[in-house]
Amino acid sequence: MAPSPSEFLNPQPTVAELPGFAGNLPQRYSRDRLFQIAAWVATAIAIAVLAWLLFDVFSQGWSRLDWQFLTSFPSRRPKNAGIVGALAGTFWVMIIVALVSFPVGVGAGLYLEEFSGDNWFTRFIEINISNLAGVPSIIYGLLGLAAFVRILEPITGGRSVLAGALTLSLLVLPIIIVATREALRAVPEGIRLAGLAMGGSRWQVVWDHVLPAAIAGVLTGVILALSRAIGETASLITIGALTFVPFTPGCTEDFPYFNPLDLLRCPVDVVQSPFTVMPIQIFNWVSRPQKGFHENAAAAIIVLLIMLVTMNSLAIVLRSRLKQPNI
Amino acid sequence: MPAEYSSLPDQASLWQPNRRRSRQVEGVVRVVCFMFAAISIVTTLGIVLTLIFETFDFFLDPFFRQDLWIDRLPQLLPEASEGQLQAIADQIQAADPKELWAQAEAIGVNPPSRIAGFFHALGRFLTDNRWTPLFQNANFGIFVLISATLLTTTIALAVAVPLGLLIAILLSEYAAPRLRQVLKPILELLAGVPSVVFGYFALLTVTPFLQRFIPFLQGFNALSAGMILGISILPLVASLSEDAINAVPQDLRQGAFAMGATKRETIQGVVIPAALSGIVASVILAMSRAIGETMIVSLAAGQNPQPIDGNFGFINPFIPVMTMTAFIVQVSLGDAAFGSLAYKTIFAVGMALFTMTLTLNIVSYWFVRRFREKYD
User: Fold this and answer.
1) Residue of B nearest to A229 (CA)
2) Burial A260-296 (b: 16+ CB within 10 A, else e)
3) CB pairs under 8 A between A and B
4) What is the DSSP letter of A272?
5) How far apart are CA A214 and CA A282, in angstroms?
6) Cβ neighbours of residue B211 under 8 Å, at least 6 residues apart?
7) A46:B163 CB<8 A
């Protein structure tokens, strides 16, 4: 539309002259600075809380951490108590979780990525897995209580290492499946096509070429899943793991009370044994009123954190190997 | 065989793959992998069926029929005096709830039907204003536990949302790449701390620290539990919001800068609105996580259900409360016998918890799909 004569006579004001527009840069810049400071302060708060937590745990527990603590069973006297029962329980549960969730998770990932097309069933499983990842762990505990402790009691032996390990396996399966799928997707399509062109069957191609190329990513996922499981408390309390365990699973009676070969020598003794794990031992000690037990809890937390950091470092090493071209 | 191949060497020296066997192996592997994938569906079904079955069992517990029976006695026996009614009520209450019919013969009035008992139970579950399922005079007001859960969750979100959002903005807009490489692992470390460790910290460190400034703060309270709960979900808010902010195309920022906006004006006026669907979804997911979180609240928030009444204890952050998850832990530690009312109660509470978190997860998923701004 052509400008009306009045607009020629009274030209539009420039931006700086517009009413309500204040360039006022100094004030705007100072607001900018405040905003940026707020972002830094928020980050500093998060780091400070983490540092405070770590400092608190180490200052409380470091002096308590000695050989006696690592090798004693629980006791009513804080100074005599130790974590050997919880350590052995954690080791056994983790071994069984790894044995169960590794093949199942990787198999499920393989099915979704390599064997099934993009059909309604695959999408249904996908939605299902992402939903499962959002279910609170204590709900898995209720499932474990009803399914593994009660219905499968003849196999699991009730509130046992096996019942706990199966519950945790279900809990971490989504993590392993998602990691496996990502690792498989990162393997170049050319490898599959080359294998198939050489006359290999789908499975031969997957087993001989795709899986070896993806294994670092898969293992990273498994380790991250185990590090999730190792700190898991709520679901194991719900299935009824004990809080006072003056023995270790298996048939090794003397020090160090833990022998992986027990899984071959007396598997039933191991998997059907009542148990406790590190986080439950910590929970138990924290909820006691005596100061001595609080120090024990802090010392046990240090041990748990060391295990976690070790596992995560392993995952980081694997991940960095993954980044190198491996084909 | 065509003639030109007859010069080939003897058949036996050619490599002949056993294709039949390969096919068989492949078939078995396919079936096994399919079964492994189906375990995720079985798990979901298991969770849903377990919760539904045990929750129904809870609502059908004879305790509630007995309770309704006593409530209805004045109508069933209009002629009886106050004292007689009281005596019969005592008789019913003292009896084994599983033998209602033997009782009915002794008293001469029939107990209410199972369906009536079911709806009575549902009514008490939703309208009681106390939560005392393990006491003689049992009350089952689930909203007592839900209010405590919402209290700790609200405090947690009040901590996690502003901090998490600011951290996300710092990481995506302000921090140099090298600083990001330092900050991201620290956040991952924070995300990896087991919740029982946060519980230790909230109960034994943060509460005594806060008591210096708030002298009337009790040893167990929703405040410090909620604050540390907020710290524990902070990495989730920060990393998901950062993903959402990073997905906003650079062109939008440059457009804003070209219009003369400052960095803060660009972030607040352009970047945040563009990433809002992802940010809101991350907050909803964090809320769902906070509702289901167990160890921090059962260690630091206490084990005292606060009645919903005019004293407003249920929204007081300075006194002990009991969340849904804390109740499940309390009963689990007490070794409830299978089939007892206490055992069924934890499944009913679990059902309420599962419904809430599932709803939030679905809302979050829907929100992203519905309101996502697409820039292609």
Assistant:
1) B194
2) eebbeebeebbbbbbbbbbbbbbbbbbbeeeeebbbb
3) 241
4) T
5) 37
6) B217
7) yes
CA distance B361 to chain A (A): 7
Separation in Å, CA of B121 to nearest CA in chain A? 21
Of B317, B291, B312, which Cα lies nearest the Cα of B302? B317
Is the separation of the CB atoms in B282 and A48 below 8 Å?
Answer: no
> How far apart are the C-alpha atoms of B174 and B168, rounded to whole Å?
10
A142 and B32 within 8 Å at the Cβ level: the answer is: no
- Domains of chain A in start order, with CATH, are 65-322 (1.10.3720.10)
What is the residue-level pLDDT of chain A in tens, covering all 327 positions?
A: 455 555 555 556 565 565 655 677 888 889 999 999 999 999 999 999 999 999 999 999 999 888 888 888 888 888 888 888 888 889 999 999 999 999 999 999 999 988 887 788 888 888 899 889 889 999 999 999 999 998 988 888 888 899 999 999 999 999 999 999 999 998 999 999 999 998 888 899 999 999 988 988 899 899 999 999 999 999 999 988 777 777 777 776 666 777 777 777 777 777 888 888 999 999 999 988 888 899 999 999 999 999 999 998 888 888 777 655 444
Token pair in block for residue A246? 């003056």
Compute the distance between CA of residue B87 and CA of residue B167 in angstroms, rounded to an integer: 66
Q: Do A234 and B329 touch (CB under 8 A)?
A: yes
Nearest CA in chain A to B188: A312
Q: Which of A29, A111, A142 sits opposite B37 (nearest CB)?
A: A111
Q: Which of residues 35-94 of B touch A (CB under 8 A)?
A: 35-41, 43-44, 46-47, 50-51, 53-54
* Dihedral pair phi/psi, residue B131, rounded to 5°: -130, 95
Task: State whether A231 and B196 contact (CB < 8 Å).
Answer: yes
Q: Are A105 and A178 in contact (CB under 8 A)?
A: no
Instruction: Give the other-Cβ count within 10 Å of A80's Cβ.
Output: 13
Interface of A with B in 164-223 (CB under 8 A): 170, 173-174, 177, 199, 201-204
Note the pTM of the prediction, 2 decimals: 0.89
> Which residue spans within chain B are E strands per DSSP?
none
**Distance between CA B162 and CA B171 in Å, rounded?**
14
Euclidean distance between CA atoms B322 and B232, whole angstroms: 19
Contact status of B272 with chain A (Cβ, < 8 Å): no
Q: Which one-letter amino acid corresponds to residue B5?
A: Y
Chain A touched by B213 (CB under 8 Å): no
The pair of structure tokens assigned to B40 is 């995720």
* Count helices and strands in chain A by DSSP H and E runs: 16, 0
